[in-house]
């Protein structure tokens, strides 16, 4: 995982088209006013949040995130978005974007299919405070736009779920043409299976064969720079969702035998059970800061048998209870 966001210089042009001064936005965000003139624009998570917070403050437009996320001109699409459009279906596009996202930022696109629903969630892996609403809106709008361009028809989510308190319900329901739930546990856009199964009219196997290998090569180089310990901990965070992943589960994901995985972890002086605890600790902090989950629900998601087991583990990690830790750190982040 890269630690910084790779930002396109096109953002500056989009701001101007929407009637905003890039300099005013950057100044309000506390960022260098020459930022968009740099050849390679890299922002930390904190700076990225500041940028999108400033975009809202300077514009005063509650729909500004939706406008930023809706790009009609394909020549402005990122290589990842272009690769997504060349795939066979909306589902393939979502999976492709999730796979390559780690090349450009410390963000994960989490795709969860259950029953007739496919939920898409954006996770800001290095965040120490909730993400700006404008950024969430832009991400949701961009996903819907990709689906619409690829299928050649308007794609309406089944519903949207926002963590934020209710605001501008009519605007969101009019834009996305679906029900919107506020005060939810996570920021999620939910599609039906029928929608994500829709084939893409933009599918082009030959062009995908030109674009994808370059992204795959970059991804391979990126993963090669990560230690096995980092890869295992990253997988554990994905597998820890009400489950208790085993060494065999992780080995299967890495396409290694359990014996080989054990040997390679030992070579890095790492122990699997300690990595499980590290993953639980980092996930616990994330859930406490960025969700409204009850503590017993957090315990379940971390694979603990009951809340008391989670409380004891957390007290060993942090020297305080989960509730007290949440109160202190939420106050600092506000």
What would you say this structure looks like, in words?
- With 334 residues, the protein is an alpha+beta fold.
- Helix content is 56%, strand content 10%.
- The chain contains 17 helices and 7 strands.
- Strands 3-4-7-5-6 form a 5-stranded mixed β-sheet. A two-stranded antiparallel ribbon has the order 1-2.
- The longest helix is centred in the middle third of the chain and has 20 residues.
- It is globular and about 55 Å long.
- The model has no long low-confidence stretch (mean pLDDT 88).
Total beta strands: 7
The major pleated sheet works out as: 5 strands, mixed
Mean of all residue-level pLDDT scores? 88
Question: Oligomeric form of this entry?
Answer: single chain
Q: How many H/I helical runs?
A: 17
**Termini gap:** 26 Å
- Give the SSE order as H and E letters: EHHEHHHHEEHEHEEHHHHHHHHH
What is this entry, summarized?
The protein is α+β, with helices and mostly antiparallel strands.
Descriptive tags:
alpha+beta, globular, two-stranded antiparallel ribbon
Outline the secondary-structure elements.
Layout: E1 5-7, H1 10-17, H2 22-29, E2 41-43, H3 45-59, H4 64-69, H5 79-85, H6 90-100, E3 107-114, E4 117-124, H7 133-151, E5 159-161, H8 169-176, E6 180-181, E7 188-192, H9 193-196, H10 205-224, H11 228-239, H12 247-254, H13 258-267, H14 272-290, H15 295-301, H16 307-318, H17 322-333
Parallel strand pairs: 5-6
Antiparallel strand pairs: 1-2, 3-4, 4-7, 5-7
Helix pairs in contact: 2-3, 5-6, 5-10, 11-14, 12-13, 15-16
